[in-house]
Amino acid sequence: MTINPDKITLILPPLFSRPHAVPAQRLPALERILACAEQARTSGDVFTLLAAGAGLQGRVPVATLTRLGHDGAPGKGGGLFADPVHLLPNRDHLVLLAGRELALTAAEAEALLAVLNEYFLPEAWVFSSLSPHRWLLGGVETAGLRTTSLARAEGRNVSSLLPRGDAAGYWRSRLTEAQMLLHQAPVNERRRARGLPEINSVWLWGEGELPAAPAAPLPSLWGGDAFVRGLARWSGTPWQALPADAETVMAAGSARVVFGDTLDGQWYDEWEDFDQHWCVPLLQGLKQGRYAVLELCFGEHRLRLQRRDLRRFWRRRVPLQNYCRAEAG
């Protein structure tokens, strides 16, 4: 990703591949951006896109960078996420459900983590949580392991997305042990009795250790996610918290890269606010020439909008669900 001082880049969690996250209401400003912009597919997920802009090429150690951003220390050795998930049987395969859809409380998460930590204590594995639905696994060797990000796996058949690489056999075996352990946990017994999906597995992803820091960091990085803070600390990039609206970003004098909060999903809580406080002023700023290029990356779905593109009056605005159908097709 090339950084341009005249460009504002918003890197956001995947949207159009996740129909359940798409709002039903009309969002005029975002719909206009979608209608007028040039659209393309990127070659990587949101973490790869942002890390590449900060000088980190290849596989991104998302979990280790997130730990660095969370508590200021990456910990010893490698690490990875071990996020709580529900694997839902669907005919001849399993579909992964994760995140806030599981309605997992902090107390339930801590109880399940205690069960896992007790069992894997002899191997010095350490499970911890950043939030009820985001768990970390430290003290492990991740060489020879290749995983699929949770965003790519969510809502999909996971048969072909399980751990792979030279160490795949070892990790799949330990994953089976964790699944058996979780199934028997009292927390899950109570959840089944209440009609809630049990936490019957963890999803391993984001593995790796930190490489050497780059020589030329980004000029400016904005975002509320612990991953963003970790990336800024690792690369030496000036970091600022996620602002309430786009005006603050447009007023900045350097390159502006904004990362949506993937940990808590705040971008998707209030769609009208996102449309009014981000999309509307960004469109106005582009019309006024305050910056030259707007780039929105919804996961692998990239939109690029210049001032001249706003003259495409013949491109009709359509509801966001239409883009989900196009993605599925």
What does this entry look like structurally?
- By secondary structure, the protein is α/β, with parallel strands linked by helices.
- It has 2 domains: 7-57 and 213-328; 75-208, no CATH class.
- The protein is built from 11 helices and 12 strands.
- It has helices at 28-36, 46-53, 62-71, 106-119, 150-153, 168-184, 186-193, 226-235, 246-251, 271-287, 321-328; strands at 7-12, 38-41, 78-90, 93-98, 126-131, 134-140, 201-208, 221-223, 239-240, 256-259, 293-298, 301-306.
- Strands 2-12-11-1-10-8-9 form a 7-stranded mixed β-sheet, with helices on both faces.
- Helix 3 (62-71) packs across helix 8 (226-235).
- It is globular and about 60 Å long.
- The mean pLDDT is 84.
Task: List the keywords.
alpha/beta; single chain; 329 residues
User: Beta-sheet strand percentage?
Assistant: 15-25%
Helix content: 25-40%
For the largest sheet, list the strands in their spatial order.
Answer: 2-12-11-1-10-8-9
Mean pLDDT over the residues: 84
**Global geometry:** globular
